[in-house]
């Protein structure tokens, strides 16, 4: 293998390693975020109703009605986004055929 090709290969390998590290960091961040949200929501919905309403821990959580409203709004937003994306892809593929 020539020196130029060898350097290109090495540069590609270095780029891959740095991308793998970046992917792992993003994956770790997403995992920690989702685990935190799951823990908060589980405590909020399952355990908090069993705690006395005068307890200090209640000030760290939203009112109980938001436990239903937030996931419903998130689901509606996700469905809307997916619908718009699917329509966009279908229109784009229809343009290519024509």
Automatic annotation (TrEMBL):
Protein name, as recorded: Dolichol phosphate-mannose biosynthesis regulatory protein
Presence of keyword Phosphoprotein: no
Subunit composition and interactions: Component of the dolichol-phosphate mannose (DPM) synthase complex.
Source organism superkingdom: Eukaryota
Stretches that traverse the bilayer: 26-47, 67-91
Role description: Regulatory subunit of the dolichol-phosphate mannose (DPM) synthase complex; essential for the ER localization.
Record lineage: Eukaryota, Viridiplantae, Streptophyta, Embryophyta, Tracheophyta
InterPro entries: DPM2 (IPR009914)
Molecular function GO terms recorded: enzyme regulator activity
Annotated compartments: Endoplasmic reticulum membrane
Alphabetized UniProt keyword annotations: Endoplasmic reticulum, Membrane, Transmembrane, Transmembrane helix
Entry membrane topology: Multi-pass membrane protein
GO aspect biological process, one term: GPI anchor biosynthetic process
GO cellular component: dolichol-phosphate-mannose synthase complex; endoplasmic reticulum membrane
Pathway(s) it belongs to: Protein modification; protein glycosylation
Native source organism of the sequence: Anisodus acutangulus
Family, similarity comment: Belongs to the DPM2 family.
């Amino acid at each position: 293998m020539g020196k130029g090709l060898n350097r290109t290969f090495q540069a590609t390998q270095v780029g891959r390693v740095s991308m793998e590290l970046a992917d792992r960091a993003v994956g770790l961040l997403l995992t920690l975020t989702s685990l935190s949200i799951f823990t908060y929501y589980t405590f909020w919905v399952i355990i908090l109703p069993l705690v006395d309403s005068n307890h200090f821990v209640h000030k760290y959580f939203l009112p109980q009605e938001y436990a239903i409203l937030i996931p419903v709004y998130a689901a509606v937003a996700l469905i809307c986004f997916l619908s718009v994306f699917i329509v966009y892809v279908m229109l784009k593929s229809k343009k290519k055929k024509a």
